[in-house]
Specification:
The protein is mainly alpha-helical. It is built from five helices and no strands.
Length: 128
């Protein structure tokens, strides 16, 4: 019982402190110096956010080719041909099926290359 009363008292103190700090820390609405400082701080925050987003985007793996869900190789047929020593893709090469995402199809192609390293060019053999 004492613990319950103690918890309620602390909760009420926290609520009162929170509302008090919000009313005392809010900038004056008609003070132009404070408004300008807040706008500058907001612009700096947005610029920093954009910089961090750009750096994340530049380090994340992406595929720059044209993905085509209507193509049986998802638009990457020529890329696959450039990786192998054959003139055309083998008949048992994985073909894209609707509903697969890029990662799933790419995983199937990678598995195929691991199982058929003999058709890969030397520069790609180490990758798989």
């Amino acid at each position: 019982m004492k613990a319950r009363i103690y918890c309620i008292a602390i909760l009420m103190l926290l609520i009162n402190y929170n509302s008090f700090s919000q009313t005392n820390s809010a900038p004056a609405g008609n003070n132009p110096v404070l408004k300008e400082a807040a706008l500058k701080a907001n612009q700096l925050r947005l610029q920093e956010k954009n910089r961090s987003t750009e750096s994340i985007a530049s380090t994340s793996p992406t595929y720059f080719g044209q993905l085509n869900e209507n193509d049986k190789y998802m638009g990457k047929g020529q890329e696959f041909l450039n990786m192998i020593t054959l003139e055309s893709l083998p008949s048992d090469f994985p073909q894209y099926q609707k509903g697969w995402d890029f990662v799933e199809y790419d995983g199937r192609v990678e598995k195929y290359f691991k199982e058929h390293k003999q058709i890969l060019k030397d520069v790609y053999k180490a990758k798989f």
